[in-house]
Write a structure and sequence with these properties.
This protein is an all-alpha fold. The chain has seven helices and no strands. The radius of gyration is 26 Å and the shape is elongated.
């Protein structure tokens, strides 16, 4: 039982630790295509093992219920296993269907260029609506806040 638990946790960790296949060389290089196929096979095997283990846990809970486990406790255990299934599915979807590489490159460039694009607006903020005020500190703080917020999103 303990060995099964250790094997399950190793495979659950291993299923999320497999390298992603969305890199550029996985689609352009013949060696990369072979590596991507191998990685996909490994990921599918590990996902299948984790899914089968979680299904086996749910069947075990139902067997325990048939052998006298209280209904409330069985329901709680079943709910924990169900939440584990949903969390594992969410993790694997985030890993497998990540943002495409071209969109990430565009987002990086946009974050770097946005300071220059908003430069005239920051000058307007520093001069105020009347054009005679000195709010340079506000403009610098606003520019830094925008840059840090966008960098944090990426």
């Amino acid at each position: 039982n303990c060995l099964c638990r250790l094997q399950f946790s190793d495979f659950m960790d291993g299923a999320t630790a497999v390298e992603r296949t969305g890199r550029g060389w996985h689609t352009t290089n013949p060696a990369g295509k072979a590596a991507a196929a191998k990685l996909k096979t490994t990921m599918q095997q590990r996902r299948h093992f984790v899914g089968a283990s979680l299904a086996r846990l749910q069947r075990l809970i139902q067997d325990l219920k048939a052998h006298g486990l209280a209904g409330g406790e069985a329901h709680r255990l079943d709910q924990y296993v169900s939440k584990s299934c949903m969390a594992f599915d969410r993790l694997t979807m985030l890993k497998e269907y990540r943002t495409p590489q071209a969109f990430r490159a565009f987002a990086r460039i946009y974050i770097l260029v946005i300071g220059a694009m908003y430069g005239p607006y920051y000058m307007y903020l520093s001069q105020g609506a009347s054009g005679e005020q000195e709010n340079l500190g506000l403009a610098i703080a606003f520019a830094c806040a925008i840059q840090m917020a966008l960098s944090g999103l990426f």
